[in-house]
Amino acid sequence: MRGLFPVALVLVAVAAPQVVDAQVYPERIAVKIKRVEAYQRRGERAEQTERKTVQLSGITSLDVGNISGDITVTRGSGSDATIEVIKTARAGSDQAAREMLQSVEVVSSTRSGRGDIHVQYPNDSVWRHRNVNVSVTFNVTAPAGVRLSAKSVSGSIKVSDIKGELSVETVSGNVRVASAGRLATAKSISGNVEVVDTQVDGALEASSVSGNVILHRLNARRLDLGSVSGDVRLLDIQSDRVDAQSISGTIEFSGALARNGRYDLKSHSGEIRVTVAAGGGFELNATSFSGEVRSELPITTHGVEGDRGRRRRTLSGTYGDGSAVLDLTTFSGSIVITKK
Amino acid sequence: MPCARYITSLQELADGTIGSIRRAEVEQHLETCEDCRAALADLEKIRDAAASLDELQPPERVWLQIAGRLRQEGRIQEAAAPAPPRRYLHAFALAAALVIAIGGSLLFIASRNRQVPATAPATATATPPTGVPDAAEVQAAATAVEEAQQKLEAAIGRLQQVADASLQAMDPKTAATLQKNIGIIDQAIAEERAAVKAEPMNVPARESLFEALKRKVVLLQDTIALMNEMRKGNPSGAAEIVGGKG
């Protein structure tokens, strides 16, 4: 079924309705023919799968490295990690798929309590110029307190209930972490990063380039967050220090502000929305170059207020006891402060 | 609680990085504001305490850049990982050098940036009030900022060339994502540059511009570091493998 879908797509693209295209835009047909040829060259009609289970005993830390495929980590008991490895190869024939499957190795080791499992793709002259279409899925059950590093180039990573120091990074895929204890890093280039129900003992750095960064019900001493085109959403957050940036995405903060806490939220064209829980207060410095600053909360202003009577572009002042600092900056977006 | 508009000045005063014009302004303010005097005293205590703390660990990409430089100079060798092609080592070393240059430019710009007031006088007066720069000082600061900005953007251009080479070697999907987002930052930079041109003394516009330039530097650095990481995972062609995921 999986193999037929692209064929159907290509057929739909090249079939009857495209006659109009051919008459008006012949170059489009050429592009589509190239796609068909590329598909035929790949000819991935056969699929081979291999499953095995790897046991890493007595570990206090674990590194999981993948190139193509997902990683899922859940909490187990004791001090051993159990890893289900599922390798899948796709090729033009069963024989080719089998050869491809064997060419990709999953290498594991344990030394001084440090476990490591990663994928090794072939690097010899036979395979150097061939497309090795093998993906590997890791389903890991690890000790709750293990120090975990999980990295994938193309694949999503999910981690839950791991209380040791945690670092999760992928290039193309989503990251989701739930109920972690010492999450330090959560990053993706083209996927979303989501952290929920987590009590971080220290600082957390979370970022994406094109995806959203979403933190929900999280408590951390410090948060350093960023995205280029995605949103940064912080919902029910407790943190003493938050730095969040986006270029075109919205930045949203909802939660209680800590006494003496500092919250720096910056976006170029996205909106900045802050929803403050009742009680406490803050010193506000909100600036937008061409957008608008609005506050539902009564801010006692001081110094230069700016644009009084017109759309307000800056707002500096104090709300409540002024015990936290809110520094909000956007170039062309708006800033909205509301009460929870 | 210190006055919000003087917080940055107080920090710079404590750090010893404040310019003479703003120093005079904040010192005048301190004569009449007890809260800010107390905040300054606290900041000085924090500065002294911070000097005795352990050094923080730099981000991984900094180590990658240093490692690239050291490898190129032949000072270290990785036993397990095969050496990446020479052209990438060269590019990486170049990127590291550019980042240093860019960092220097940013510091220079930031220090100059802070010395220019938020609201410039519309016309120069014969005897400006204490703490307000005259037109010549404003012009000198603006020229310095512009020169530093040009140097920074030239450095970014060279860094971009290195990143472009990395993008060509990546799988098309990831490369397209990175290129698209570099384009988004470029668009932001263009808008902010136009705003700075229209309102040279507008501090939010200038700060936004430098933030976007810094963001671009970080993304370009990450792109180069990413390519290096991918090559470590599969030196013969991680990009092709990623691209081939079905």
Summarize the structure.
The complex is a heterodimer of chains A (340) and B (246). Chain A has 340 residues and is mainly β.
Which helices and strands, and how do they pair?
The complex is a heterodimer of chains A (340) and B (246).
Chain A: H1 4-14, H2 18-24, H3 26-42, E1 46-56, E2 61-68, E3 71-76, E4 81-91, H4 94-103, E5 105-111, E6 114-120, E7 134-143, E8 147-154, E9 157-160, E10 165-172, E11 175-178, E12 182-188, E13 193-199, E14 203-208, E15 213-227, E16 232-246, E17 251-255, E18 262-267, E19 272-276, E20 282-288, E21 293-295, E22 300-301, E23 314-319, E24 324-330, E25 335-339
Parallel strand pairs in A: 2-6, 2-8, 3-7, 3-9, 8-10, 9-11, 10-12, 11-13, 12-14, 13-15, 14-15, 15-16, 16-17, 16-18, 17-19, 18-24, 19-25, 20-24, 21-25
Antiparallel strand pairs in A: 1-4, 4-7, 5-6, 20-23, 22-23
Chain B: H1 7-15, H2 20-30, H3 34-50, H4 60-72, H5 86-114, H6 135-169, H7 172-198, H8 203-233, H9 238-243
Helix pairs in contact in B: 1-3, 4-5, 5-6, 5-8, 6-8, 7-8
Report what the structure shows.
The complex is a heterodimer of chains A (340) and B (246). Chain A is mainly β. Among the domains of chain A are: 4-42, no CATH class; 44-155, no CATH class. Chain A contains four helices and 25 strands. Chain A has helices at 4-14, 18-24, 26-42, 94-103; strands spanning 46-56, 61-68, 71-76, 81-91, 105-111, 114-120, 134-143, 147-154, 157-160, 165-172, 175-178, 182-188, 193-199, 203-208, 213-227, 232-246, 251-255, 262-267, 272-276, 282-288, 293-295, 300-301, 314-319, 324-330, 335-339. Chain A has a 25-stranded mixed beta sheet that branches. In chain A, helix 2 packs across helix 3. The two termini of chain A are 49 Å apart. In chain B, helix 5 runs antiparallel to helix 6 (135-169). Chain B folds into two domains: 1-56, no CATH class; 58-118 and 129-243, no CATH class. Mean pLDDT of chain B is 66; it is low at 78-96, 105-131 and 234-246. With 246 residues, chain B is an all-alpha fold. Chain B starts with 6 loop residues before the first helix and ends with a helix. Chain B is 72% helix and 0% strand.
